[in-house]
């Protein structure tokens, strides 16, 4: 009997050890918003909760060093719970490691199969252990083709998961709205918003916030700076690269914004400050100015704040535009006297490739 058990465990371990990552894995194409729509997990502790599992949402953010932040939102009876995981790159593209606080161990993550714009099959912990190993199916939307669902189930079965542990949970009510943060804000974005026309180079010329820490940071260095927005047509996100003079050095900082189902509304996570940010382009004529309203939430404290930013295609801003911006700020209950007007000191020349926010 013991010999049979050993043979079975050796076969299971070998099956997982032979799993290879997606060929020519491209982390940039993999970034952005995903929904976890399938899960194979045979943990005895998890079994009683199988029928309570709901689809969850995550945002993958690539760091400059090749590591990855995954922000996951899990619907619970008490509301939406957010957790952030950092996956450490390995020498093999498509394979990462991370430290599981729950199990107090290092696990490996393998992106087994993905076409980037529809689905991804991910294996967590290749050395099989029923308490630690999972297979997850992610989709760019909550509705996937039946052929993809069957591919997920077949792969899970090939990895020795019993059929009853292979789940395709129903959507959660909050994810049906396809909004990354609390659905309660109703903010009107620019009518007939055109993402393509919004891309390109802008200068941040003014800013105001209800967050004292944000205002303190901005007041230390109130200089106008350029941002470049770039979007690849097939991607579900775009990048914003800001060139900023900080601490005597010119630096580039890149943020990745995920698109939502609402044109002109975006989401990104600021890992430096542990904040989730919902951004709305509330006004733009694309050729001269753009006004962005941001709702930010600190993950640790839960505190919320509002930022309102004014961008211009040039470094020369008319007083009429600044007056209109001040009026909009006051309409949102923020004193116009607190607006920080960035000074035009010219553009600095960056050193190196930049850092990730």
From TrEMBL:
Keyword terms of this UniProt record: Disulfide bond, Protease inhibitor, Secreted, Serine protease inhibitor, Signal
A GO CC term attached to the entry: extracellular region
Subcellular location per the Swiss-Prot or TrEMBL entry: Secreted
Keyword presence, Signal: yes
UniProt GO MF annotations: serine-type endopeptidase inhibitor activity
Domain Lipocalin/cytosolic fatty-acid binding, residue spans: 31-170, 200-342
Entries under Gene3D superfamilies matching the protein: 2.40.128.20
Database matches in InterPro entries: A1-microglobln, AMBP, Calycin, Lipocalin_CS, Lipocln_cytosolic_FA-bd_dom
Keyword Membrane applies: no
The protein's name: Lipocalin/cytosolic fatty-acid binding domain-containing protein
Organism from which the protein derives: Takifugu bimaculatus
Signal peptide annotation: 1-17
Primary subcellular site in the record, as a coarse category: secreted
Lineage: Eukaryota, Metazoa, Chordata, Craniata, Vertebrata
Protein family per UniProt: Belongs to the calycin superfamily. Lipocalin family.
Pfam family, one: Lipocalin
